[in-house]
Specification:
Isopropylmalate Dehydrogenase, single chain, binds 3-isopropylmalic acid, binds magnesium ion, two-stranded parallel ribbon, ten-stranded mixed sheet, alpha/beta, 12 helices
Length: 355
């Protein structure tokens, strides 16, 4: 039984809707497994600009700094589009990542069996897509012009990616633009030097333009992709298209401070408040939080298996609806998931298997 504080940052657009879904799942886990999760909410992004004139109020950063983990929805929207870079909602998120010392961002890209059919790729191209993008999160073009990376900055993210690859299929593809960028040349040299420490991992280098193409041509060739802040941002949206919707992918960020979990999608202002958002990216971010940070693998498995059963029953949000699917809203999707979690648990208690 655990006692943990998880700070909730709803943010803007569909952020509050998907975060409500994530919080409901956390509460369900706490209740059924006897944990105590405190879930205080703080403003970030446009909501924080409106409330406090600052996309990252000091009280928000301070609360996150003391938390065991942070769960974020999304930031940004047309209302704040006229603001200059540095004052926009996005600065709140970048400031949070920086302020918490989060330099690792992991974005697992996995097909969920009931959703294979919604990929725009033909099945023979799709293969067994299961990769992870390890994105550097606190430097690069996001924080310097021209792009700057230091050797220690590259080493620490590469070490994470190598270790990640060791736990998977032991293939690491480092993505750069070393034919043009000096920062990428340093990146490539540093990754090569580091590879001596991880002899079991097979390292390959790929230019980012080619990587973007290879992801569409043969995504199953990739195991772990290691890349910079900007390239990781772009390649992760492309990967989301491969699995069928940007609403499906979670992410986890690690570093020196409290880890941060967030879906990879944006605030989707055009569907905000319409009960149409896909909560799966947030739910899978919650399972990463449970498994990777709190060590609650059983709870995480419980949520994911129940989720797959809801999907296998044909329930879909609009973005992942196939012909014949039962299209439901965000709130109804979560209700179905909670019901499924309850019956999965009852089943496991009766027969001794299954959570
Ligand atoms: C993401 C987002 C953010 C980023 C934006 C909202 C600042 O696109 O997490 O991928 O660029 O990192
Ligand atoms: Mg992005």
């Amino acid at each position: 039984m655990l006692k943990k504080t998880i700070v909730l940052l709803p943010g803007d657009g569909i952020g509050p809707e998907v975060l409500r879904a994530g919080a409901a799942i956390l509460r369900e886990c706490a209740q059924e497994f006897g944990h105590q999760f405190d879930l205080p909410e703080y403003p970030v992004g446009g909501a924080a600009i409106d409330a406090a004139g600052d996309p990252l109020p000091p009280s928000t950063l301070e609360a996150c700094g003391k938390a065991d983990a942070v769960l974020l929805g999304a930031v940004g929207g047309p209302k704040w589009d006229a603001l200059p870079v540095g004052k926009r909602p996005e600065s709140g998120l970048l400031g949070l990542r920086k302020g918490l010392g989060l330099y690792v961002n992991v974005r697992p890209v996995r097909l969920r069996a009931p959703l294979r059919g919604i990929s725009p790729l033909k099945p023979e191209r799709l293969g067994e897509l299961d990769l992870e993008i390890v994105r550097e999160l606190s430097g690069g073009m996001y924080f310097g012009n021209p792009e700057m990376y230091s050797v220690p900055e590259i080493e620490r993210i590469a070490a994470f990616a190598f270790a990640r690859a060791e736990g998977r299929e032991r293939r690491l593809c480092s993505v750069d633009k070393a034919n043009v960028l000096a920062s990428s040349q340093l990146w490539r040299r540093t990754v090569n030097t580091m590879s001596q420490v991880y002899p079991a991992v097979q390292v390959e280098h790929m230019y980012v333009d080619n990587a973007a193409m290879q992801l569409v041509l043969r995504p199953s060739q990739f195991d772990v992709m290691l890349t910079s802040n900007m390239f990781g941002d772009i390649l992760s949206d492309e990967s989301a298209a491969l699995v069928g919707s940007i609403g499906l992918l979670p992410s986890a960020s690690f570093g020196t401070g409290a880890p941060l979990f967030e879906p990879i999608h944006g605030s989707a202002p055009q569907i905000a408040g319409k009960d149409m958002a896909n909560p799966i990216g947030t739910i899978l971010s919650v399972t990463m939080l449970l498994r990777d940070t709190l060590g609650l693998g059983i709870e995480a498995d419980w949520v994911e298996r129940s989720l797959d059963r809801v999907l296998a029953s044909g329930f879909r949000t609009t973005d992942i609806a196939e012909p014949g699917a039962q299209v439901i809203g965000t709130a109804a999707f979560i209700d179905h998931l909670r019901q499924e979690m309850q019956s999965t648990l009852a089943h496991a208690e009766r027969y001794g298997w299954g959570v």
